[in-house]
Design a protein that fits this description.
The protein is 29% helix and 25% strand. It is α/β, with parallel strands linked by helices. It has two domains: 116 residues, Lyase, Ornithine Decarboxylase, Chain A, domain 1; 206 residues, Alanine racemase (TIM Barrel), CATH 3.20.20.10. The strands form two sheets. Strands 1, 10, 11, 12, 13, 14, 15, 16 and 17 form a nine-stranded mixed sheet that branches. Bound molecules: pyridoxal-5'-phosphate.
């Protein structure tokens, strides 16, 4: 994280570098804000994508009601940066983590997902001992096959117990329809997401009728922001990737811009083949080969740890030292490999922002 690189053109910084186009980022945040402006749902962006408190604050400035995290360690990073309203959209299990969680409640409005009565009792006990009341929501399994209670009346016994536990405040429910967010066809994506939301709202109705109103109904990813975000009864969406975007999501929600790239340099060039200094330790492959953005007429091929190969179709010849720009196929895991963003405006590096939540898997 060398500050001497501030003010340089993005093609001059050392490589490989994670580059974030500030103007595109801000347009993405504004686009989400504009979309939700006249809708009942708000956005609580998932910060597991960017892992950066500066971006989280920008989202709050753009109208977000809070921040979502996947891990306790990420929530600690956000709370340390002064962010108060944080949802951990995940299960926090075991005494070590529960102790950290309730301490977080001393200086933030932390909220956590719950699916198990024993876990709820342990959370309540720890919160009572620490003199705090922990905000909790029930996680509902809406079809993804991950965590959560079954939809509908199955949530009632847990909610009834949570409502009586002195250390907890029962706030509502969440259900992430992650199995639907990448469905390429919009009609099919809509049908699948709406089916998932019907399960979540069925749960809300059961709770309402039982006298345990779910004030918060949280769901949604970037691929379903305009489906889940308008589904009646959903109060907030957890979209994350829309801020920085990546090559895979670009096909699903092309209205958001690829603000995130990796700038790398050619270290070997031989006719129609070249090699760059960015491999699997710089750009993750689980969503496919990253997309070469520049130069035109070349494509990215195989990746090894510290190399990726380029193949020429009709581009101009490359030389060692030439810079290339790549769009990661999966932003969330690629960002997690880097210490910092080189933040650019009109191609000039205007700031270097630490990826403070990097590696916070505990
Ligand atoms: C619980 C939860 N909510 C929301 C999201 C949405 O993220 P994205 O905007 O990247 O689709 C995710 C992604 O993994 C998630 O796990």
């Amino acid at each position: 994280m060398d500050r001497y690189e501030i003010g340089l053109n993005k093609w001059e910084i050392d490589t490989p570098a994670l580059v974030l186009d500030l103007d595109a980022l801000e347009r993405n945040l504004a686009k989400m804000a504009t979309f939700l402006q006249d809708k009942p749902a708000r956005v609580r962006p998932h910060s597991k994508t960017h892992k950066c408190p500066t971006i989280a604050w920008k989202q709050l400035e753009a109208g977000a009601i809070g921040i979502t995290c996947a891990k306790l360690g990420e929530a600690e990073v956000m709370a340390r940066a002064g962010i108060r309203d944080i949802l951990i959209a995940n299960q926090i299990i075991g005494p070590t983590k529960i102790r950290r969680l309730v301490n977080l409640a001393a200086y933030s409005e932390i909220m956590v997902a719950v699916e198990d009565a024993e876990n709820a009792r342990q959370l309540s006990e720890a919160a009572t001992a620490a003199g705090v009341r922990l905000r909790t929501i029930i996680e509902v399994e809406v079809g993804m096959g991950r965590c959560g209670v079954e939809p509908g009346e199955d949530a009632l016994p847990l909610a009834r117990e949570m409502a009586t536990l002195p250390g907890l405040r029962f706030e509502g429910i969440m259900g992430y329809e992650g199995h639907t967010v990448m469905i390429p066809d919009m009609d099919k994506r809509r049908a699948a997401a709406e089916e998932a939301m019907a399960r979540l709202i069925e749960t809300k109705v059961a709770l309402d009728q039982d006298g345990l109103p779910a004030g918060i109904v949280s769901a949604g990813g970037s691929g379903t922001y305009n489906i889940t975000g308008v589904y009646p009864g959903v109060t907030e969406i957890q979209a994350g990737s829309y801020a920085t975007m990546d090559a895979r999501y670009k096909g699903v929600i092309p209205e958001f811009e690829n603000a995130l790239t990796v700038v790398a340099q050619v270290i070997s060039a031989r006719g129609d083949r070249a090699v760059i200094d960015a491999g699997l330790k710089t750009m993750t492959p689980e969503f496919g080969v990253p997309e070469l953005h520049q130069p035109a007429g070349w494509a990215l091929g195989g990746q090894s740890e510290e190399h990726s190969s380029l193949k020429r179709s009709d581009g101009a010849a490359l030389r060692p030292g030439d810079r290339v720009e790549v769009i990661p196929s999966h932003g969330c895991t690629t960002i997690n490999l880097h210490d910092a963003y080189y933040v650019t405006s009109n191609e000039r590096v205007v700031a270097i922002w630490p990826v403070a939540g990097r590696g916070q898997v505990r």
